[in-house]
Amino acid sequence: MRRFVIRLGIPLLILLVALQFALPRFAEHQVEKRLTEHGGEAEVKLSAFPAPRLLFGSGDKLDLAASGLSVDLEQNQQDAFKQLDDFSDVSIAVQGSRAGPFAIRNFNVEKTGAHAYDVAVTGDGTAGDVARYAGSRVGGGLGQALAGLAASALGGFDQRIPFDARMQISTAGDTPVASNVEGSVAGLPAGALTQVVANALLNGL
Q1: Are 42 and 36 contacting, i.e. CB atoms less than 8 angstroms apart?
Q2: Element (H, E) at 203
């Protein structure tokens, strides 16, 4: 019996070791594929011990560098920051991408605590794009703010509306909350806009 257990245990151990090395690369490839479904490049580094945790969307480290992504801004997306809570160490850098009508120059996220993130986003969109998007896709207060901003710029429908914001996001409660917001988004609620952009860019995670 003891020999049988030993003989059975050795292949199982080999399998577990193989999974520990193979699963992260498999998961990285799947995430990269989802993120670049509509173009762009992405390099994802994942780690977890034991590795099968990655199959359930959690792990020790998530490192993402991407550029040229093109994503839509869908309503009712799963909140990206709540998803990131399942990783202990998070570092995200996205450059030269599009999220709906917005051109995103830089989008960065660093996890600074169990439920805390430093977030920075810079980009712009035309008044016309913002108006059309606000009227058809975004509801509630954010949609009204976008539409109002676009209406005030009707004198130049192609006018670029820049945004540059930095903030901290807390996921300690049921809903992520932005605080210590710095920068301007041309009159838009910076925290809400940043979370919309984040949910779109990170929806493939």
Answers
A1: yes
A2: none
Question: What gap in Å lies between CA 42 and CA 27, rounded to an integer?
Answer: 13
Q: Please tell me the distance from the alpha carbon of residue 116 to that of residue 110, in angstroms, as a whole number.
A: 9
The span from the CA of 81 to the CA of 172, in Å, is 11
CA dist 113 → 92, 162, 180 (Å)? 15, 30, 16
Q: Give the tens place of pLDDT for each residue, 163-187.
A: 888 999 999 988 888 889 888 665 5
Taking the alpha carbons at both ends of the chain, their separation in whole angstroms is: 45
Amino acid at 123: G
What b-and-e string marks burial along 145-182, b requiring 16 or more CB atoms within 10 Å of the CB? bbbebbeebeeeeeeebebbbbbbbebeeeebebeebe
Per residue in 137-163, pLDDT (tens digit) is 555 555 555 656 555 554 566 777 788
Give DSSP secondary structure letters for 11-74: HHHHHHHHHHHHHHHHHHHHHHHHHTTTS-EEEEEEE-SSGGGGGGT-EEEEEEEEES-EE---
What's the rounded Cα separation, in Å, for the pair 47 and 45?
A: 7
